[in-house]
Design brief:
The complex is a heterodimer of chains A (250) and B (284). With 250 residues, chain A is α/β, with parallel strands linked by helices. Chain A contains ten helices and ten strands. Chain A has a single domain, classed as P-loop containing nucleotide triphosphate hydrolases (Rossmann fold, 3-Layer(aba) Sandwich), CATH 3.40.50.300. In chain A, helix 4 crosses helix 6. The chains are: A alpha/beta (250), B mainly alpha (284). The structure holds adenosine-5'-triphosphate and magnesium ion. The site of magnesium ion has 3 residues of chain A, from helix 1.
Chain lengths: 250, 284
């Protein structure tokens, strides 16, 4: 299996606090990789270092190598191009206060697409891929803030897909949603992995087991174990992993 | 038992507090009603057509030129203060590093500026714009003086409006590969518009109601600008009122002028409410 993202000997400091300790991991192409672990173990931090959202954080220092398709994320990419290649979906749906259409068209417009026809096609395509076109095709001009939480989150996924990323980082995308919306997003993720690569942070063990191909378990800034999901959930090698996934962890 | 006593005590205390709150609110309302009522009763019967004559003379003491000057003064002052105020606020909130010492200094400075009595602005305007720049007593000198005076208002309200825009919008925009400029102008600024507008209306209120800062900068000529354009002196409605009261001969007309001034100010406040609601409705 080809790895689209490789992380080598990565350390990350927030000022004096070491949030990531010597992380080595790969994210295989066209798979869903789940990142699990207790709160504060550094999952979001790792995710944010992949599309350089940590650049915005004062006092954040990163060492080691992050490679996207063999090229160094911190040296060989312009940050805005990198973020086009590596999209992100956040924990709380964050549609912009504009129409559904403008939300989805925001990314393509940012990267220079201006023609109405092209934008129309991209918007329809992205909404289709996010499985929300049927629900929203008649309210493209309505404010995105009027949608339900689940619809907003799928809209945010569509917005991320509209710039045609290679990788989609999702930071607890379902934690603010009801079970039915959650299920829809899970189904969506399984569909999307055919075309994209997905890294999904989750606190939901069942979700990790259901949809991911690979699972990585983190604890206090270290990656304890990373393996096939079936393997990790049936024969965890590390007993901390076992304690965590069986729910015996504090 | 002690507990119960305590509870009773607290109960009477809360009733007492509630009473004070109600009385205070009542007094405030009464005062406003009294002032408004008094001016309206004294002023409305004196609203004669003469008062709205196109040209001012000492017989009709027309307020029309002053009204036109007020509009000009407001437009020019805001045209100077709004861009500067909004752009500095954008710089402070979006571009300067958070917690930067320089930012703190600017904040303290604007707060101090906001607290300076307007006559001091008038003095500064007179020394700087009127004398040093050689603009004489003119609408332009007055407008610049007022622009400096309302700058802190516009800056502060814009800053607060920008800070109130959730960071998740910024993250979302950066996450799509947008730069700072695009993020600020396409995503952040539109969300902050209601707050900014309310600041602008507040500034308009200050401008319309100002006298002290204008008397020694824009002068008290009671006509609309002549061939000198913005370099001619002109009195706004509030200054007009001040002069009328000062002359003692025109008390009736002064009341009538006050009615017009009050109607304008109330109208502006209502307008700001409408605008803010419109914008909120649009974004939610
Ligand atoms: N901007 C920051 N500045 C300083 N410390 C931070 C910052 N962001 C995160 N941290 C610290 O880094 C550690 C890892 O945080 P992170 O958000 O990555 O955890 P997480 O695994 O995503 O947790 P959760 O499951 O609660 O989202 C935490 O101890 C946190 O306090
Ligand atoms: Mg997190």
């Amino acid at each position: 299996m080809e790895n689209i993202i490789e992380i080598k000997n990565a350390d990350l400091h927030y000022n004096d606090f070491k949030a990531l300790k010597n992380i080595n991991m790969n994210i295989p192409k066209h798979e869903i990789t789940a990142l699990i672990g207790p709160s504060g173990c550094g999952k979001s931090t790792l995710l944010k270092s992949i599309n350089r959202m940590n650049d915005l954080v004062e006092g954040c220092k990163i060492e080691g190598e992050f490679l996207l398709e063999g090229k160094n994320i911190y040296q060989d990419y312009d940050v805005n191009i990198l973020r086009k290649e590596v999209g992100m979906v956040f924990q709380k749906p964050n549609p912009f206060p504009m129409s559904v259409y403008d939300n989805v068209a925001y990314g393509p417009r940012t990267h220079g697409i201006r023609k109405k026809k092209d934008l129309d096609d991209i918007v329809e395509d992205a909404l289709n891929k996010a499985a929300i076109w049927e629900e929203l095709k008649d309210r493209l001009k309505k404010s995105a803030l009027g949608l339900s939480g689940g619809q907003q989150q799928r809209l945010c996924i569509a917005r991320a897909l509209a710039v045609k990323p290679k990788v989609l980082l999702m930071d607890e995308p379902t934690s603010a949603l009801d079970p039915i919306s959650t299920l829809k997003i899970e189904e969506l993720a399984e569909e999307l992995k055919k075309e994209y690569t997905i890294a999904n942070v989750t606190h939901n063990m069942k979700q990790a087991a259901r949809i991911s191909d690979t699972t990585a378990f983190f604890l206090l800034g270290e990656m304890i174990e990373c393996n096939q999901t079936t393997e990790i959930f049936s024969h965890p090698r590390n007993n901390k992993t076992e304690e965590y996934i069986t729910g015996r962890f504090g | 038992m002690g507990r119960k006593r305590n509870g009773e005590k607290r109960f009477t205390f809360s009733v007492f507090l509630k009473g004070i709150v109600h009385i205070a609110a009542g007094i405030t309302c009464l005062m406003i009603a009294f002032i408004l009522g008094y001016i309206l009763i004294m002023g409305i019967p004196n609203l004669k057509p003469d008062l709205f004559a196109w040209e001012y003379n000492t017989d009709n003491v027309s307020l029309t030129p002053a009204l036109i000057n007020t509009v000009i003064m407001t437009v020019v002052s805001l045209a100077i203060a709004i861009p500067i105020g909004i752009f500095s606020a954008i710089f402070l909130v979006e571009y300067a590093k958070r917690g930067n010492r320089f930012v703190k200094v600017i904040r303290v400075t604007t707060e101090t500026l906001a607290g300076i009595p307007s006559i001091v602005y008038g003095l500064f305007g007179m020394l700087f714009f009127v004398t040093a720049m050689g603009w004489r007593l003119s609408i332009l000198a007055g407008a610049f003086t007022l622009a400096i005076m309302v700058l802190p208002i516009i800056m502060r309200t814009t800053e607060e409006a920008l800070l109130a825009v959730p960071d998740s919008f910024r993250e979302g925009s950066f996450g799509l590969g947008a730069g700072k400029l695009r993020t600020v102008f396409i995503v952040i600024l539109p969300s902050a518009v209601p707050g900014i507008l309310s600041g602008i209306v507040l500034a308009m209120g200050r401008i319309v109601g100002e006298t002290a800062a204008l008397i020694y900068t824009a002068g008290t000529v009671a006509n609309i600008p002549g061939s000198d354009g913005l370099f001619s002196s002109g009195r706004t409605l509030a200054v007009h009122l001040y002069v009328l009261i000062g002359e003692g001969l025109y008390t009736k007309q002064a009341y009538a002028t006050a009615v017009v001034l009050i109607v304008i100010v109330i109208g502006m406040n209502a307008l700001s409410g409408v605008i803010a609601r419109r914008c909120q409705w649009k974004t939610s």
